[in-house]
UniProtKB/TrEMBL annotation:
<protein>
    <submittedName>
        <fullName>Tripartite tricarboxylate transporter substrate binding protein BugD</fullName>
    </submittedName>
</protein>
<dbReference type="InterPro" id="IPR042100">
    <property type="entry name" value="Bug_dom1"/>
</dbReference>
<comment type="similarity">
    <text>Belongs to the UPF0065 (bug) family.</text>
</comment>
<dbReference type="InterPro" id="IPR005064">
    <property type="entry name" value="BUG"/>
</dbReference>
<keyword id="KW-0732">Signal</keyword>
<feature type="signal peptide">
    <location>
        <begin position="1"/>
        <end position="22"/>
    </location>
</feature>
<dbReference type="Pfam" id="PF03401">
    <property type="entry name" value="TctC"/>
</dbReference>
Amino acid sequence: MKILSKTLVPLALLATAVGAHAQDFPASGKTITIVVPFAAGGPTDRVARDLAEAMRKPMGGATIVVDNAAGAGGSIGANKVAKAQADGYTLLLHHIGMATMPTLVRNIPFKVETDFEYVGLVNDVPMTVISKPTLPAGNYRELVAWINQNKGKINLGNAGVGSASHLCGMLFQQAMSVDMTAVPYKGTGPAMTDLIGGQIDLMCDQTTNTTGQIEAKKVKAFAVTSTKRLTTPALKDLPTMQEMGVKDFSVSIFHGLYAPKGTPAPVLKRLNDAMQAALKDPDFIKKQEGLGAVVVTDNRMQPAGHKAFVAAEIAKWSPVIKAAGVYVD
């Protein structure tokens, strides 16, 4: 009995410490940092800042800041969180890169599936298939006919290797069974400028980057990659790819919240509860709608649903990336 009690005492003390830590989380005066693995000012950075603001109140007024750690296709910032102390004070807000990094980034220093705790999915940002304004097609079916008539002569722009527009473009080519000349740019800005100017023919990019250009009629829009039509005024008349007969074509640049592996379960629950409260905040929803994003309301806002979704996305994108033979060092 004496040996048993000596074994149980440390375990009891550990359980009490973990419980107390979770109960006190976040501790007064301690800052929660959300790491964004991309530069400030981009769509992911904006989502993170909106989320941080919306989570402050349900976290008891805690200070939540955003830290931009860009580079290597988003893996530098992700690795920073994977190696951080597992106490709930360092989090990661990442997009579809969590599903593409395992295949896209060479020598990745962590495992997406096992080195993180999944807190929950935040939003979906659909993509749009757009073209230069002078392209002689007025709807999606006419676009397909034009593509088939111009095989070997089509330029497809993107914001750089591994970018959302690059990934969507690869999937689009695969769906069309047509090889197009990929034209990578250093960001969406210059790619969009050349599309508007007619230097490239097509692009598949996030609604956060295309809605304004579509509304201003600077580019032509043919379809959205969501499973349902969007309600945004400039996009509401666009059909989905699946409506147009492209089976299982669904691409969204989702954003999810992650913590280092080993973060205590009660702390993760506290974070998830606060995140779910943020996702129901009218101001947060309005801000996301302004970006063309759809706030998650299904089981993916729960850790298990989030993790299962990312696993399915890894399986979806891995063969596409391997077939294209593109990598980030």
